[in-house]
């Protein structure tokens, strides 16, 4: 068994381990659609999804803080809307991802007027597995 790392990584950017994958179990690899035929029989169409699993990593006011400089690095990655990135979670799982339409939201821990680059934020990253 491998020892968990102390952080996640997205490309070369280190993310805090305290960021949690909040929608990990809200997705199914199977897509199902049902309809009734003109005879009243139930028709079920099933397909296996090839990609598109959401990976939303979220920090909290009490865990998963990141520095403003890390947020700036993430925004630089998100600037290319079609770039693919490797996400490695602290537990060793690896995914190829892209950023979603609304990729990052962040709030400072307090309300500084001019936050320095080391100032802590809690953030939400929205990614899609491809």
Structure description:
The chain is mostly beta strands. The protein has one domain (7-129). Helices cover 8% and strands 47% of the residues. It is built from 1 helix and 10 strands. The strands form 2 sheets. Strands 1, 2, 3, 6, 7, 8, 9 and 10 form an 8-stranded antiparallel sheet that branches. The protein has a two-stranded antiparallel sheet with strand order 4-5. A hairpin with a 5-residue loop joins strand 4 (30-36) and strand 5. The protein is elongated, with a radius of gyration of 19 Å.
How are the SSEs ordered, and which strands pair?
Blueprint lengths: L6 E4 L2 E4 L3 E2 L8 E7 L5 E7 L5 E5 L6 E3 H11 L6 E4 L5 E15 L11 E10 L1
Antiparallel strand pairs: 1-2, 1-8, 3-6, 4-5, 6-10, 7-10, 8-9, 9-10
Rg (CA only): 19 Å
Number of strands: 10
In DSSP terms (H or I, runs of 4 or more residues), the helix count works out at: 1
Structural class: mainly beta
Overall geometric form: elongated
Helix content: under 10%
The average pLDDT is 92
* Beta-strand share of residues: over 45%
**Secondary-structure element order, as H and E?**
EEEEEEEHEEE
**Which regions are unreliable across 5 or more consecutive residues at pLDDT < 50?**
none
The major sheet is characterized as:
8 strands, antiparallel
- Into how many domains do the coordinates divide? 1
How would you briefly describe this protein structure?
The chain is mainly β.
List keywords for this structure.
1 helix; 47% strand; 10 strands; two-stranded antiparallel sheet; mainly beta
């Amino acid at each position: 068994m491998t020892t968990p790392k102390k952080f996640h990584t997205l490309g070369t950017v280190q993310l805090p381990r305290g960021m949690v994958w909040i929608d990990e179990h809200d997705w199914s690899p199977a897509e199902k659609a049902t309809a009734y035929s003109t005879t009243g029989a139930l028709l079920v169409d099933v397909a296996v999804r090839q990609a598109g699993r959401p990976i939303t990593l979220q920090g909290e006011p009490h865990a998963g803080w990141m520095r403003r400089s890390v947020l700036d690095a993430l925004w630089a990655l998100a600037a290319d809307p079609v770039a693919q990135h490797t996400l490695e979670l602290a537990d060793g799982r690896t995914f190829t991802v892209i950023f979603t339409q609304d990729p990052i939201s962040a709030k400072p821990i307090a309300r500084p007027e001019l936050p320095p680059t080391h100032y802590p934020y809690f953030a939400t990253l929205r990614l899609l597995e491809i």
